[in-house]
Design goal:
With about 230 residues, this protein is mainly α. α5 packs antiparallel against α6. The protein starts with 6 loop residues before the first helix and ends in a 5-residue tail after the last helix.
Length: about 230
């Protein structure tokens, strides 16, 4: 995550302002009022920067954790899928053996194949349900036991559940990263405020200082509005 304005930098600007006022005492009451406004503005920016930086860091950490969870969950989903795929291959081999025996009208091989199929988890029920559709005489019968709703190879449902959970973690991680970036953008706006207030002390004309302070206040209010629209740190 890119970095924005730090609290240290904001504090340094405030310290520079105080030092500048100490080195250039005196002036009219109006000048002193402007200096006070500048100091208040810098102090406020420092506080807002601290909050924005803290929030950006928290959301960055949240994003990293969610993306790590998404990766770990995806690995578990792949393992469950591979387990289901292994069962599918074994089921297909058993069915091919049964079908070959049925086509060859080999009663002994047919009996052995049916006994083995009945031993397979979930596949036996799907196989019997498929036979009940009379597949050799019914043109509308499913293509095979794997097309039956009773066929649920171990690991398949778990793989789908884990995939959905991994997607959810990934989406949360992306949203957290975007929120952190929004907080970083706020600190960029605040950096502009610090720059404007910092150079305003160098302007001998009050109008120039007024203009820079006014722009700084507007930007600070805009930054505050942006912060209020963002979710609080997790």
């Amino acid at each position: 995550m890119p970095k924005g304005l730090s609290t240290t930098e904001a504090g340094n600007k405030l310290a520079e302002h105080v030092k500048h006022e100490a080195e250039h005492p005196g002036g009219s009451k109006r000048d002193r009022r402007i200096s006070i406004v500048e100091a208040v503005l810098l102090s406020t920016v420092s506080l807002v920067v601290a909050w924005a930086g803290y929030s950006a860091a928290k959301w960055g950490t949240e994003s990293s954790l969610d993306l790590a969870k998404a990766s770990a969950t995806r690995v578990k989903a792949n393992r469950a899928y591979q387990e289901a795929l292994t069962y599918r291959v074994g089921d297909a081999v058993a069915f091919n053996a049964w079908f070959s025996a049925h086509a060859a009208k080999d009663e002994n091989d047919l009996r052995v194949a049916e006994k083995y199929i009945a031993f397979l988890p979930n596949y036996g029920a799907a196989f019997r349900a498929w036979l009940a559709t009379k597949p050799f005489t019914n043109p509308n019968a499913p293509a095979g036991p794997e097309a039956m709703p009773e066929y649920r190879p171990p690991g398949a449902a778990l793989a789908r559940t884990l995939d959905a959970k991994a997607d959810d973690y990934y989406d949360k991680g992306q949203r957290a990263a975007e929120t952190g970036n929004h907080y970083i953008r706020v600190t960029v706006i605040l950096a502009i405020v610090l720059f404007l207030v910092g150079i305003s002390t160098q302007f001998p004309l009050r109008r120039g200082r007024y203009a820079l302070i006014t722009v700084g206040v507007v930007l600070l209010l805009f930054a505050g509005e942006q912060l209020l629209s963002l979710p609080t740190p997790p």
